[in-house]
Backbone:
């Protein structure tokens, strides 16, 4: 009797996770699939980070967002949109 090999997907299923923490608490965890681009990154900040900052009120010494130098984080579009927001990037 032959044993049947289980087929495997060519590429593993991948998910991305975005979240933030501070001394005032944590943001909602954002889990998504697909490709991250500048527009999606800005949408994640808009729908997850900004409500957190607004809800928590003033941060002692201001609020600062730390991130790596990925092109989505440093794009002209992201920098321009962040100037209108309550955080420094």
Residues:
């Amino acid at each position: 009797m032959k044993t049947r090999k289980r087929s495997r997907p060519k590429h593993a299923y991948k998910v991305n996770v975005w979240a933030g923490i501070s001394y005032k608490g944590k943001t909602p965890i954002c889990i998504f699939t697909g490709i991250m681009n500048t527009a999606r990154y800005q949408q994640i900040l808009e729908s997850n980070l900004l409500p957190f900052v607004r809800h928590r009120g003033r941060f002692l010494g201001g609020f600062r967002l730390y991130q790596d130098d990925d092109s989505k984080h440093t794009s002209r579009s992201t920098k321009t949109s962040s100037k209108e927001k309550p955080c420094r990037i």
